[in-house]
Write a structure and sequence with these properties.
Blueprint: E1 2-3, H1 6-10, E2 24-30, E3 34-41, E4 49-56, H2 63-66, H3 71-90, E5 93-100, H4 102-106, H5 110-121, E6 125-127, H6 130-142, E7 150-155, E8 160-166, E9 169-176, H7 180-186, H8 191-202, E10 215-219, H9 221-233, E11 244-247, H10 248-259, H11 263-267, H12 274-277, H13 280-294, E12 298-301, H14 306-312, H15 317-320, H16 324-336, H17 343-350, H18 359-370, H19 383-392, H20 401-414, H21 433-453, E13 464-467, E14 471-475, H22 486-498, E15 502-506
Parallel strand pairs: 2-5, 5-6, 7-10, 10-12, 14-15
Antiparallel strand pairs: 1-9, 2-3, 3-4, 7-8, 8-9, 11-12, 13-14
Length: about 500
């Protein structure tokens, strides 16, 4: 049922007490279709997943007709949770939160099931209300998309959670009995009946019609499977689900196409797990119906949802508000760096080259600075391409596909790679020419900086870049012996010429 807005969803108490700095945190998500354990490192920065495993239990299968959890699913779920709790203990997890969602919440025997799990594992199970589940999904999404504007749709096996988002602020919400398992069962597998159920339920959410021209943020395993199909069908050059964005008309066309595919055709789809194929048409119909009613500008698929929201609430307040991209890049630099220049030192040194940049451009440049030593231990002949692929596919929140490409190309150029290399050419169509040129300049500036200082900290700040209409000057201190060399002069010249400037060494 639809429910009131901000006051009802945004002011609820956190599901769990925050963990202290350090150690690891974990979430066991007992869903209608799967049971999953995710473990996160929780040092002094936002955590990064270090373990992620799911078990296909289908707890919610049959609940529409029996009112009870699937008996085989119950057996498998308890076995899986036992394993996950013991694994978490072996991994040194300091705080493990177990949450259950729609199937357990709605089943007549849901309370009995949670008691069995608690006896088996010695930990409490928190059965999320529809409001809590929706709020946590929004918190997880907003950790990576701070200014999300439109509606979040989180499709599980037993329910569809909808949350209105107003430029990063959580608004109204609804929880509907439209999970892909439940929809398939309630309709008896009949597509026409399923569509009538969808339309009737979505019509109970009046604020959906206010979402026209904004975005739908699609969360949940079945919609991620659909995103893989859309990526293949549109020949999108980047096979990363998080922040994959597709326009309304293409999304609507493909959703209706997939919903109408025969079982034999579905079985041949690449990139879709076999256990997702059976109910994929119903998950796709749910998206198509939502698209038709809301009329968004685009669909943005997200890899971040309820579990990430739950994880954030296990953390101290100061960690929750960190920029997830910069925090993750700082952690990466600390783990893989040698004696490298600090990211902030690089960022400040390069700033004269980018006088008119936006805050988003500066943030992405900061990330490039932090990742600019990521390939130091690779073989020199493969360093550029390996670093490019690592950055392009890095599992960090807060990156659009366009931003991923810019970041990866900047690191490629930093390692003397060529943005026109056929290996990287397929991603060019995601960028404007100005964005491609900016990535090249960032990469050349990083290459000059690392050469100038030998990648050692503290030296770069003794020098300064100055830019005029016609000249790029590298100002050096009086004691300049450590900075002068043929490689420095050559890389300064390359950077200047790329910017259509003359180079000069001064000071």
């Amino acid at each position: 049922m639809a429910a009131p807005g901000d006051a009802a969803i945004a002011e609820r108490e956190p599901v769990a007490e925050p963990a202290q700095h350090g150690g690891r945190v974990g979430v066991v998500d007992i869903g209608s279709n799967t049971v999953r354990l995710v473990v996160y490192e929780a040092p002094t920065r936002l955590p990064i997943p270090v373990f992620n495993e799911k078990a296909q239990c289908a707890l919610g299968r049959g609940i529409a007709t029996t009112g009870k959890l699937n008996p085989e699913g119950v057996t498998e779920a308890i076995r899986s949770v036992r394993r996950f709790v013991r694994l978490a203990a072996a991994m040194g997890v300091d705080r493990l939160e177990m949450v259950a969602t729609a199937a357990v919440r709605d089943a007549d025997d849901g309370v009995a099931f949670t008691r069995r799990v608690e006896r088996a594992c010695g930990l409490p199970v928190h059965v999320l209300s529809g409001a809590e589940e929706a709020r946590l999904a929004a918190v997880g999404l907003l950790s990576g998309v701070h200014d999300a504007d439109g509606v979040l749709g989180d499709l599980g096996g037993g329910s569809l959670d909808l949350v209105g988002l107003n430029h990063g602020t959580i608004g109204e919400y609804a929880t509907l009995p439209l999970g892909h398992l439940r929809l398939a069962e309630d309709s008896g597998g009949d597509h026409q009946k399923a569509r009538k159920i969808l339309d009737a339920q979505l019509d109970t959410v009046p604020w959906l019609s206010d979402m026209g021209g904004r975005a739908i943020y699609a969360v949940g395993g079945s919609w991620r499977a659909l995103a893989r199909v859309m990526i293949d069908q549109t020949h999108h050059p980047l096979h990363v689900i998080d922040n994959y964005t597709i326009g309304f008309f293409d999304a609507f066309r493909l959703a209706n196409l997939v919903a109408g595919l025969s079982q034999s055709t579905l079985d041949r789809l690449t990139g879709v797990a076999r256990n997702r194929v059976e109910t994929l048409p119903f998950a796709t119909m749910a998206l198509a119906a939502l698209l038709e009613l809301a009329g968004p500008r685009e669909v943005v698929f997200s890899g971040f949802g309820m579990r990430e929201g739950q994880m954030l609430e296990l953390l101290p307040e100061d960690l929750r508000h960190q920029d997830p991209l910069i925090s993750a890049c700082e952690s990466q630099a600390e783990r893989t760096g040698r004696f490298a220049i600090r990211g902030r030192e690089l960022l400040d040194w390069m700033t004269p080259l980018f006088a008119d940049e936006t805050e988003d451009e500066k943030r992405l440049r900061h990330a490039a600075c932090l990742l600019s030593d990521i390939g130091w231990s690779e073989h020199p002949d493969y360093r550029a391409v390996h670093a490019y692929h690592r950055v392009l596919r890095i599992p960090y929140a807060g990156l659009t596909h366009e931003a991923r490409v810019q970041l990866a190309l900047a690191v490629l150029v930093r390692y003397n790679g060529d943005v026109d290399d056929p290996i990287v050419a397929p991603v060019h169509n995601l960028l404007e020419n100005s964005e491609l040129e900016r990535a090249r300049i960032v990469g050349l500036a990083l290459r000059l900086a690392h050469t100038l200082a030998g990648s050692a900290p503290g030296l770069l700040s003794q020098t300064q870049l100055k830019v005029t209409k016609t000249r790029l000057t590298l100002e050096l201190p009086k004691d300049r012996a450590v900075f002068l060399g043929e490689a420095v002069e050559r890389r300064l010249r390359t950077l200047a010429r790329t910017m259509n400037l003359k180079e000069r060494i001064g000071g």
